[in-house]
Amino acid sequence: MIIKPFAPSPLTIGLQALVTRLQPTHPQYQNLQQEQKIKEAGDFGEHYVMKELRQTALLNDCHIFHNVILPSVLPMQIDILIIVPNAIILLEVKNIRGTVHLKNDPRQLIRTSESGEVHVFTHPEIQLEQYIQGMKHFLDTQNISIPIFGAVVFPFNNVNIHREDSGLPILMAKELPLFLHKHIEKSKETSTMNEIKHIVLSHLRDRTPFPLCQYYQIDASALRLGVHCENCGQFGMKKLRMTWYCQSCQYQCKDAHIRALLDYYMVVGDTISNRACRELLNIESQYVAKRLLKKLNLPSTGSDRIRKYDLFSLYWNAPQKK
Ligand SMILES: [Zn+2]
């Protein structure tokens, strides 16, 4: 049973907004575009594995979580956590194509793409070992003792893996049912599973790298302003009385400004003034800007001209991030 379903990572959604808004001539543009692709591929792989797990009858009575961050002495961001009757299983998903060399001393993952480009990544075993230790520590603080297993999962057969030495299991997604079968003892006893599920749920943390301009040290003046048309990709939708209108493709959308304000939250900062809102949406009237902001029921601080609207709730309630 899926307890916490798949959702794209905040960094992926944020990078999509940043890359869309960054001037293509910016020196960091290509690197960020590359990073966006890597993050999107990572999310795609995690989504695929979650779908496979949902269809695994063996897990019908188990609890599955996507993207778990828990308070611990060691930083933890577990791609997939599964609570089974007698154990906890952590999966680290790596959607990397090409030829992958997992080398020791020092442990590194070296990927050579089809075009011969070489990239070096953190060895997934290092992350997984850290998450297993972090999870042990977290459960210790809750007075729970249960075996914790982990595996690195490559979702697709588009990778050719070379490994120097044995260590934690490295699996293809199709091997997961067999791996899980080995680790799940048949048990009718579900009280421990439910207890751990509730503990995990009540300690879940959210972490975002926003605002990305600060995270990547980019000056906000390098961003493209205006309301972006989701239909044709052009900036500069015009505010009409009831809607936003794209002059390039005639697309209309009532809520196009909300997407722009979300971009602002993820990329520039968590609060916005009336003036910054007018610049962002490319509207002249402060009354129109005020009306748009008021309608969103955002908490605000300060009065009149120095009023700042808090965009936090806009992000956390946004359907796009689900
Ligand atoms: Zn358009």
Supply the key terms.
NERD; six-stranded mixed sheet; alpha/beta; Arc Repressor Mutant, subunit A; 16 strands; 2 domains; Nuclease-related domain-containing protein
Secondary structure topology:
Layout: E1 2-4, H1 10-21, H2 29-54, E2 63-68, E3 78-84, E4 87-93, E5 98-103, E6 108-112, E7 118-122, H3 124-141, E8 148-154, E9 159-163, E10 170-172, H4 176-183, H5 191-203, H6 212-215, E11 238-239, E12 244-245, E13 252-253, H7 256-267, E14 271-273, H8 274-281, H9 286-295, E15 300-301, E16 308-310, H10 312-316
Parallel strand pairs: 1-2, 4-8, 5-9, 8-10
Antiparallel strand pairs: 2-3, 3-4, 5-6, 6-7, 11-12, 12-13, 14-16, 15-16
Bound molecules: zinc ion.
InterPro entries: NERD (IPR011528)
Domain NERD: 41-158
Protein name: Nuclease-related domain-containing protein
Rg measurement, Å: 23 Å
Quantity of strands, as a count: 16
SSE order: EHHEEEEEEHEEEHHHEEEHEHHEEH
Total discrete domains: 2
Shape annotation? globular
Q: Percent helix among the residues? A: 25-40%
Describe the biggest sheet?
Answer: 6 strands, mixed
InterPro entries: NERD
Organism: Lysinibacillus xylanilyticus
Pfam family, one: NERD
Domain NERD: 41-158
What does this structure look like?
The structure is a single chain. The chain folds into two domains: 2-203, no CATH class; 225-321, Orthogonal Bundle (Arc Repressor Mutant, subunit A). With 322 residues, it is α/β, with parallel strands linked by helices. Strands 1-2-3-4-8-10 form a six-stranded mixed β-sheet, with helices on both faces. A four-stranded mixed β-sheet has the order 7-6-5-9. α1 packs antiparallel against α2 (29-54) and α8 (274-281) packs across α9 (286-295). Helix content is 36%, strand content 21%. Zinc ion binds next to loops.
